[in-house]
Amino acid sequence: MASNSIQQQKELKIFNNQFVVLKKLSSGSFGVVFQGEDKKTGEQIALKIEKEESDEAKSLDRESQILQRLQGIKGIPKLHWSGSEGPYNIMVIQLLGRDLAYYAKHLKRFQLKTLIMLAEQMITILEQCHLKSIVHRDMKPENVLVGRDHNEIFLVDFGISKVFKDANGNHVPFRDGKPFIGTTRYASIGAHKGFELGRGDDLESLGYMLVFLYKGSLPWQNLQNVSDKEKTKVVGKMKMQILIEELCKDMPNEFSKYFEYVKKLQFKQTPDYEYLKQLMRKCASDNKIELDYKYEWALLERKSSDQSQHNSQRNIKKDSSHNDPNKKQTKNNISTQSKLKPEIDSEKVSKSKSPAKNTKRQSLIPEMQSQNQSQSSQFDFLRPPDPYAKARAIIQRSQERHKSVSSLAPSQYSQVNTVQSSIAGNYQASHIDMFATDSQQQQQQETTEKKQDMIQAQNFGFQPLESNDTIAMLIGEDEEGPCFQYQELLEKQVQAQFKEILRNGNKNRRNR
């Protein structure tokens, strides 16, 4: 069976006898995206490929039909070709750059100038899509890509988009009781209520996206003790209850006015896009910002390109130095000179060294300080003095296991479960023994305190978790990503399992 799939991959290197597949860019439940080349023009293209019998293939059909309808709009990728070959549906579009989620991660927060230019361009793109009777229904940073020249942005992923007017220009009727659609973090209030989505919902989602890009987060991110099933409901309630002034705190007043307007839009009402763009221009004028549409990520990409060129040049120099006999001779001369140094130099060095006792003591704590420093940033609740170092060492090992697990392919998780569980048990048992007391009476008292601490921890939602539970959660991926899920569970696990140990260590220190 594996040989058949390999054979299919070999046969599917060229589509429509024109588009050559070069390398994979990304993959997911939607299918696979490849970078390729148009044989006729030499232009670089992107190929989105899905299996024909899958539900996602129907989504790809819908997306290609909508893209065909939107062709010619600035900020919509060019559709080169779509069709099916063998068991696959294929859509070939213009090759673009990175998405805004990537730049949000690296830049942390967008500058106001970037935000205003981005907002004005996105409002214009949505306006043109709405004029073609298309609502996007999934506005988020991952669906906004930067052009190859870094100064133009594109709206992509129309897989769940919808036509809201029929051939006669009649608007679809309002309906409720619809399933939630979109991305929880950026979805409109109407999406959370189960309403049919319209043009105002696209603009509201764009508003949440702009707040996220400017502030670096939204109030409903990183919810604790909320299951994936409850998240959509809880986030929707938070969006309904939050005041616009609170949502747009520390942002120019024009963004509050933006939300005030889009939230009042009726389902069939045509938005005043020009008014919204004027708000952005006024914001730029008040803050003396020139809208030159030179985005800050262009500088980031330039630095990245310069760094890669510098590294390649340095590698070339290294290779040439290895082959240079003169440099080898120079190194030999230096080593010879160092051997001829007087013995008094070696005596100075020996005097400057610390005594054997200090050396031994330092060797006993070789990495603990660096471990403690790295832990303090990731686990704020673990900032104790020396008695806590052993517990932190346990956490450090847990993080190292996390890195090795998170780098595995999904098919390899099952192979890790048993090993991961036994390793965790061994670490815990060996290090807990170090904190054990000699007195049996003290042990009984500590057992009672431990139970009380565990009950208190459970009341706060810090349930002790097995390693298998952690890995199972790692497999499940939502908008926050698998690494976040593991880290959140790891913190709860550490809080529940080591709280009483650290407390006893502190108590022993006070008794001394």
TrEMBL record:
State where composition is biased (Basic and acidic residues).
316-327, 340-350
Q: Which residues form the Protein kinase domain?
A: 19-340
Q: What class of enzyme is it?
A: transferase
State the organism's lineage: Eukaryota, Sar, Alveolata, Ciliophora, Intramacronucleata
Output the SMART domains linked to this UniProt entry: S_TKc (SM00220)
Q: Where is this region: Disordered?
A: 304-385
* Compositional bias of kind Low complexity: 369-378
Cellular component terms per the entry's GO annotation: cytoplasm; nucleus
| This enzyme's EC code(s) | 2.7.11.1
Q: To which species is this protein native?
A: Paramecium tetraurelia
Q: What is this protein called?
A: Casein kinase I
Q: Name one GO biological process term.
A: signal transduction
Listed GO MF terms: ATP binding; protein serine/threonine kinase activity
